[in-house]
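Q: Hi! First time doing this. I have a protein sequence and I read that you can turn it into a structure. Is that right? Here it is:
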Amino acid sequence: MRSLLKLPPMKTCASLLAAFSLALLMTGCLTSPVESSGGMGSVTVINSNPSAIVAAAQAVFPQSGYQLSGSNFPNSISFDKGSNKFANVMWGSFGNPQTIRVRVNINQIPGTNNYRLAPRVFSVSSAGEAGFEDKRPLMGLWSSQFGPLLRQVAEQAGGAGAM
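A: Yes, that's right. Below is the predicted 3D structure, encoded as C-alpha cells:
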C-alpha cells in the first residue's frame, strides 16, 4: 500500500530545520533590550551622568596601571597601558613596544538617566606620537577583561543623578 503523503528526502528536511533554527536564533539576538546590549564587558550605570562616569573612570583605571590617554567628552574616555612581551611579539616589532588602549564608550539609554559603558580595546604602536600612531582593534574576549573595572566605575558613578 502506498502512502498518499510523500515526504521530502531526509537531507532536505535537515536543511530546512537548520535554516529555521538559524532564523529563530538570529531574531532572538536582534530583540535584546537596549539596557542589555553593548557587547562583552559592558555595564549599565544607573541614574548617573557623563561627568560622574568620567570622574569615576579616572579614579578606577589608574589603580590597575592605566593612564588617561584621551577624552571625547561626553561620548568616550580612553586609557593606555604598556603591553607585555607576548603582545610585543604578536603585534609589534623589535624596538617598537605595543600599548593596550581601552576606549570606554558612554551611551545614554534613551528616556532614562542610565548609561551603557562599552569597552573597545586596541593594540597601539607608537602610542602618543602624532602622525605615527597605528592602532589595531582587538575583538571578542579582549573587551570582557574590562568588565570588573567598569563595574567599579558603575558602583562609584551610579546614583549621581542627571547633570
